[in-house]
Every structure is written in structure tokens, then in C-alpha cells.
């Protein structure tokens, strides 16, 4: 079976505190709760992205090899229209960033980490 273009695309993040992760994504990054949070698992949605938040007791987390305990270099990529305003808003909320703003030919980006250390790239495309 394959995913159709109108279905949500899911990404799994392993987190150590499901409630803290739900609060982070829904309070700061515009996600909405998709299923009722449980100690083991919850999922949040933003547009076509369904982010699976798997706590230590979830089957998704238990399937992770023991040598893969640190967050990876992969990240979700969220497009913003005013990166400087987003940075200011998130800093005012007490969040800190994992990188400085990087400028490239495609635009500007900065990395934010969730409470478990998973990365989120905030990206403002270059003007045409």
C-alpha cells in the first residue's frame, strides 16, 4: 500500500517527555494536537506534516537500536515568512537556538531544538 498525495506525511521523533514535546510544538510552532496525549505517545499536525512524538514506553522508541540514543542530524523543515520576527517571538518565549542564522543562495535558516534535542529548521526563502 502507498500513501496518496492527500494523506498526511508522518515523521517520528523520539522524545523523553511526551507532554513537554506536545506543549513545545503546539505552543510555539503552530502544531495542533491530533490524538489525545498519553504518557507513551502523542501526535501533532501542522499542514500535511504529522509529527509522531514517541516517549520511552512507546513501541516506536523501543524499536530504536541502543546505539542510536542521541538525536540525529535530520530535522523537520518549517518555512516562515519573517525569520527575524519568529526568532524574536521564540526568544521572548524563553527558547534558545542551536545555531546562528545562516544565509545561503536559497534563503536564511536557523536551528531550534525541542525539549528532547530533536532539531527544527526554521527557513525563510530568498525573495525572487
Automatic annotation (TrEMBL):
SUPFAM superfamilies: Glyoxalase/Bleomycin resistance protein/Dihydroxybiphenyl dioxygenase (SSF54593)
Protein name: Glyoxalase
Location of the VOC domain: 7-125
PROSITE patterns membership: VOC
The organism of origin for this protein: Nonomuraea glycinis
Classification via InterPro entries: Glyas_Bleomycin-R_OHBP_Dase, Glyas_Fos-R_dOase_dom, VOC_core
One family name in Pfam for this protein: Glyoxalase
Amino acid at each position: 500500500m502507498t500513501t496518496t498525495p492527500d494523506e498526511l506525511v508522518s515523521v517520528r521523533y523520539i522524545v523523553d517527555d511526551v507532554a513537554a514535546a506536545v506543549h513545545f510544538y503546539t505552543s510555539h510552532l503552530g502544531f495542533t494536537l491530533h490524538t489525545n496525549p498519553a504518557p507513551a505517545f502523542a501526535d501533532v499536525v501542522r499542514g500535511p506534516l504529522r509529527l509522531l512524538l514517541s516517549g520511552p514506553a512507546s513501541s516506536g522508541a523501543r524499536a530504536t537500536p541502543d546505539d542510536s540514543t542521541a538525536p540525529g542530524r535530520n530535522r523537520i523543515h518549517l518555512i516562515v515568512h519573517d525569520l527575524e520576527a519568529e526568532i524574536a517571538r521564540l526568544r521572548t518565549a524563553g527558547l534558545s537556538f542551536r545555531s546562528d542564522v545562516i544565509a545561503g543562495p536559497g534563503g536564511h535558516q536557523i536551528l531550534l531544538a525541542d525539549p528532547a534535542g530533536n532539531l527544527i529548521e526554521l527557513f525563510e526563502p530568498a525573495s525572487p
